Structure formats: structure tokens, C-alpha cells
Amino acid sequence: MKSLRIKFEKTSLAKYISHLDLSRVFARSLARAKIEIAHSEGFNPRPKIVFASAIPLGIESICEFADIKTPETQIFEKIKNVFPEGINILEAYEPENNFKDIDRTRFHIFIKTFSEIDKSFDITVEKKPGININLKDYILESNIIKSSEYDILDVVVKTNQEMYLNPENIIKGLKANNITEIEDYFIKKTEVYDKNNKIFA
Prior knowledge:
The chain is mainly beta. The chain has 2 domains: 2-96, Alpha-Beta Plaits; 102-194, Alpha-Beta Plaits. It contains 3 helices and 10 strands. Strands 1, 2, 3, 4, 5, 8, 9 and 10 form an 8-stranded mixed sheet that branches. Strands 6-7 form a two-stranded antiparallel sheet. The chain starts with a strand and ends in a 7-residue tail after the last strand.
């Protein structure tokens, strides 16, 4: 068996599919397409499907990745139409790198606000119970794109094995520190980069 990487989008209502349920969706969809994949050993074998990361619930993404092992070499045509709405298969190819090479991620945070957004991000938030972080240590780039309905906060944040920032913490920090008055928002993951700041594939 050889490794194949599936690049896909997770949008619309599919953004509410949990990481655990996403594994089930992939297993069932690949089985529906009659794609043979490697399984774990033991009394209860499970399909071996490895995702690049667990995207937070409710966040859309146009750059998700899943690795499988299969004896087949060309699977795109077989799988592109078997997934539920919102899971859009973009490519299937042999990977040249590992998920551990992922270092940072670009998010577009669409914010409906009544005030200007402070881009310094010298803001302390509680990342986990008892663990506080300063957002500026995790945010590598930031830019604000003005539009008629939403301000788009374009940010690149650390998402590697040592430092990982959930973009929801940016909203949390802005709200908790009264930086801006937020009426509504949604988040989209738009690109992934490696340690050399090259687009991950």
C-alpha cells in the first residue's frame, strides 16, 4: 500500500461536523467509493485515516488534508462525488511532506463591528483553564480588509506542535478586553504553511 493525500474543503453545514464524526464520514464515503484502505490491527480494526489537524467546530476551511494508505494510485474520480454536501474533494495525490511540517495557518475572520480593531494584539487570554497566553506571541501577520458588511481580519497564526492558536481565542481576547464591540463574526481557514513559510501541500 502507498500513502495518498486527500485535499478537501469543509464548508456550509459541514463545518458543524465534529472531528470524530469527520473520520466516520471519510470511512463511509471511501467505502461507498469502493476504495480499499489500510486498517488498524486488533479485535476492532478501524480505517487508518490521518487528518492534518482537528479544525475547531463551526469554522469553515478550504484547505483541509487527510492521509490514507491504499493499493490504488488514482482515486480522485472515484471519490469526488461520494462525500456529503460541504465536503468538497479538491485533489488526491502522493504526499511529499509530513503533517508535522505544518507551522502556521491563515484565517479570515469576518467581523461585524462598531469600532476599529486594534492590530497590536498585546492581549492576554485564557487558552485553557489555568493557562494564559499573549496573542501577540502567536500571531505572525495581521491585516484588516474593509468591506461593506464585515471587516475581514486576515491573520496568520502559529499552528505547530509546540504553539497552536485557535482563532476563536482572538475573538475571545477582543471581547474580554473590550478592544472592540463585536456584533457578529464567522471564521474561514484559507491557507496552511510549512516551517519555511511555503504553502503546505
